[in-house]
Amino acid sequence: MGLFIICFAINMIPFLSPSNMVLAGAAALLVPELGWVQIGLIVAITATLAKFIHYIVVRGSRVVLSQERLEMLESEKNRVEKWGALALFIAAASPVPDDPLIVYVGLTKYNSAKFLVSYFIGKIIITLAGAFIGFETANYFESTPIVIASIALTAIITGILFKRRSEGKESDMMQDILEDEILGDDDGKDDEQVVDSINHDESETS
Question: pLDDT digits over 114-163, tens only?
Fold first, then answer.
């Protein structure tokens, strides 16, 4: 239960959570007595649940988008329905950053059941592999727990830094889009008022 809560909390951090392969390997290093299969399953389940919550939140954020942007997203639906499952599987089963893809499928209202199945299948592959590697490494360093803890901590920190570097631009871009949608109209009105004021002053001067 402790591993479940920790992995879930880490995966809930958008754009910053480390690779789940690294997370599963670090968990297997620290608690090899749980068994690599069980660790892989726990990490895969928590990752899928956390990303599904992200998907639901992003899907709900459509309410702040303009009609023009919603129409553009609607035009992408056929492509997402055709390739969404494969894209989610690849993103989940590889080191490829998956948060931008989750934002995309959420905004296009991709089928939630297909999301869960595709993402979990891909994620269980990479978490089992990571847990197995971590488990074997733990057996090798069985008599040196400090070394094991150091390796696990280094792996997690490296994963977080890599995730931040690879997904930081996508996160900033998404923030800019939302800010533009929420504040764009007000900014436009302010700009129009400034222009009208300038024109009025010039006409009085003339």
Answer: 999 999 999 999 999 989 988 887 776 665 555 555 655 665 555 555 55
Residues 6+ apart with CB under 8 A from 174: 100, 103
Instruction: For the chain, give the number of residues.
Output: 206
Three-state SS for 117-167 is HHHHHHHHHHHHHHHHHHHHHHHHCCCCHHHHHHHHHHHHHHHHHHHHHHH
Is the separation of the CB atoms in 102 and 123 below 8 Å? no
How do residues 169-178 score in pLDDT, each as one tens digit? 544 555 555 4
Q: Structurally, how many domains does the chain consist of?
A: 1
Calpha distance 173→97 (Å, rounded): 15
- Structural domain of residue 125, as residue ranges? 2-205
